[in-house]
Amino acid sequence: MIPQDPTSYDGVVHIIQLSLSPIFLLSAVATLLGTFTTRLARISDKVNAILDAPSRDEVKARETSLRLSYLRRRTHILDVAVILAAVSGAFTCGTVLALFFSIVRDKTAANLLFGLFGSAILCTLGALGAFLAEVLLASRGIRAVALNSGRLVD
Fold first, then answer.
1. Can you give the residue range of the structural domain that contains 72?
2. How far, in Å, CA of 65 to CA of 7, rounded?
3. Residue 104, Cβ neighbours under 10 Å: how many?
4. Tens digit of each residue's pLDDT (9 = 90 or more) over 120-149
5. Which of 25, 56, 122, 139 is the most buried (most CB within 10 A)?
6. pLDDT (tens digit, 9 = 90+) per residue, 57-96?
7. How many folded domains does the chain comprise?
8. What is the pTM of this model?
């Protein structure tokens, strides 16, 4: 609830307090983006290692092609997670901005706040879902490689 006189000291303090919740979400989104970027870098390293390894026989070339296809799917899923997290961050920033502009109290500001923060939460949930799918795909791939190399019994 925005105070009646938002230009007073108490009013400004209250608006700043209200903006802290979205800022915590923004901090979490930034952490997620860092995690996603790290995973993309690891995939990039794996692709480079595969491409640097010589493959002389046809079976090895087929395995290399399958592995690269698998890593490509993982990057697509991470792309979705990164895009959704970035959009969530933008919506969160919009929420904070709308809070500060809500000094002019009207129904439009409340609808804008609800829409921006709700969209930020939905994008964060989508990013987490895409991240979960990528992690599950990665773990399935690790198990398949270990199983094929004879080191793991499933």
1. 26-148
2. 64
3. 9
4. 888 888 888 888 888 878 877 766 765 665
5. 25
6. 777 878 888 888 888 888 888 888 888 888 888 888 887 7
7. 1
8. 0.65
